[in-house]
Amino acid sequence: MNMTASNSILIVDDTPNNIKILLDVLNNVGYEVSVAKSGEIALEKLPFIQPDLILLDVMMPGIDGFETCRCLKADENTKNIPVIFMTALSDSVNKLAGLRMGAVDYITKPIEIEEVLARINIQLKLKNTQQALINEIEERRQTEAKLKEALLDLRHTQTQLVQAEKMSSLGRLVAGIAHEINNPISFIYGNLRHTHQYAQELIELLQLYQRKFPTSDSEIQAKSEEADLEFMLNDFPKLLASMKVGIERIREIVLSLRVFSRLDEAGLKEVDIHQGLDSTLTLLEHRLKANSQASNIEVIKDYGNLPLVECYAGQLNQVFMNILNNAIDALLEEPQKQAIPTIRISTRVTDDQHISIRIKDNGAGITVDIIQQIFDPFFTTKPVGVGTGMGLAISYQIVVERHQGILECRSRPGEGTEFLIQIPLNQKPIQSLTQLNIESQKAMGELIVSEPV
Ligand SMILES: Nc1ncnc2c1ncn2[C@@H]1O[C@H](COP(=O)(O)OP(=O)(O)OP(=O)(O)O)[C@@H](O)[C@H]1O
Ligand SMILES: [Mg+2]
């Protein structure tokens, strides 16, 4: 805090006698005094001397005291310097006008030394107190701002940890279930081929019997009719074929779940980004298909020729999931406005070091006032219980902090929204992490991977 006592005074007066008296007295009591012989000179000097108080004669040739005061008060740098006017008893000045202009006091000439000193003293004390108060307020404001920042940081870290923990358990659960389902599905899938082959042969055998022994046995006849043998023989292969399609679909979903959660792969891995995008799309297929409330959402894959990318694949898949889910939300929100609701996913190698993934929808877009806030934790425009407002905050952390990448959003109302993810092909080790960050990074690492990072 600046507690230096104020002790510099500027005298502005055109009468040498007055100047001399004031100069002697004020110097004697220890003030630092400077002098200007006119309003013009005072205004010229002020940027260089910054006095703590000004004694200003009202009646002066050139610009008078009132005009000088008006100029002082209009300038940011000098407006807070207290001004005491000096007037002769005989001067018929409007004292009130001077006070309204910002002066703090009046001294009457001829000068009474004791009075001058007392008035100067009061004003300088007031100024010191005022300055101390201003300093204290500023200090409090700064402390408050720091506290707010710390609280925000704390809330942010806490949110990340809670979310990481939630995702970690969810990821394990999903991967565990996918693994459990995988075995029985494999039995069914593996045996379906044999079932199909056996059924085919049994049917052929039955048909051979029918040809070789066209029986008139009434019991066989009755049973054949009861079972609708002809229909059964025709329908059975079709039934098996559709079971095969169903099982293949289940296998695809289970595989996508495993690729998506990547629990079986620890830490940084070189992965095929397109596989991650495709597995995410498979898991979202139920939201992309037409139903009674919404039409089909078309997905255009504009995939470039990407090399394998070193990344935390499971986490990156969560980013795809969050952004794609948001795009679907936007397209379902105002389905009537666009001709064909479309999501376009483009991937490219941007330079030798980075790849970009753009996910663009032709939904309603985001307004200017909202776009600033979309990456803030808990910011959501969705109804309570629908959105938590964490999807993009977590995505930002994963892309920017975890992968040293870029996550940007470009959007205009009515023109849809595009998210750009850019990450390096290879991850450099991060040098300067605080312990807290390391902890949260570890927690995020456990989100998908089973080994500590
Ligand atoms: N593609 C988009 N089109 C329009 N608005 C979007 C889009 N993506 C994000 N937003 C806006 O950004 C906000 C924040 O998104 P974010 O994913 O962080 O949270 P959320 O989707 O509301 O909730 P959740 O935590 O369930 O994801 C959304 O509520 C929405 O207003
Ligand atoms: Mg979201």
Automatic annotation (TrEMBL):
<dbReference type="InterPro" id="IPR005467">
    <property type="entry name" value="His_kinase_dom"/>
</dbReference>
<feature type="domain" description="Response regulatory">
    <location>
        <begin position="8"/>
        <end position="124"/>
    </location>
</feature>
<dbReference type="InterPro" id="IPR004358">
    <property type="entry name" value="Sig_transdc_His_kin-like_C"/>
</dbReference>
<dbReference type="InterPro" id="IPR036890">
    <property type="entry name" value="HATPase_C_sf"/>
</dbReference>
<dbReference type="InterPro" id="IPR003594">
    <property type="entry name" value="HATPase_dom"/>
</dbReference>
<dbReference type="InterPro" id="IPR001789">
    <property type="entry name" value="Sig_transdc_resp-reg_receiver"/>
</dbReference>
<protein>
    <recommendedName>
        <fullName>histidine kinase</fullName>
        <ecNumber>2.7.13.3</ecNumber>
    </recommendedName>
</protein>
<keyword id="KW-0902">Two-component regulatory system</keyword>
<feature type="domain" description="Histidine kinase">
    <location>
        <begin position="176"/>
        <end position="427"/>
    </location>
</feature>
<dbReference type="Pfam" id="PF00072">
    <property type="entry name" value="Response_reg"/>
</dbReference>
<feature type="modified residue" description="4-aspartylphosphate">
    <location>
        <position position="57"/>
    </location>
</feature>
<dbReference type="GO" id="GO:0000155">
    <property type="term" value="F:phosphorelay sensor kinase activity"/>
</dbReference>
<dbReference type="InterPro" id="IPR036097">
    <property type="entry name" value="HisK_dim/P_sf"/>
</dbReference>
<keyword id="KW-0597">Phosphoprotein</keyword>
<dbReference type="InterPro" id="IPR003661">
    <property type="entry name" value="HisK_dim/P_dom"/>
</dbReference>
<keyword id="KW-0808">Transferase</keyword>
<keyword id="KW-0418">Kinase</keyword>
<dbReference type="InterPro" id="IPR011006">
    <property type="entry name" value="CheY-like_superfamily"/>
</dbReference>
<feature type="coiled-coil region">
    <location>
        <begin position="126"/>
        <end position="167"/>
    </location>
</feature>
<keyword id="KW-0175">Coiled coil</keyword>
<dbReference type="Pfam" id="PF02518">
    <property type="entry name" value="HATPase_c"/>
</dbReference>
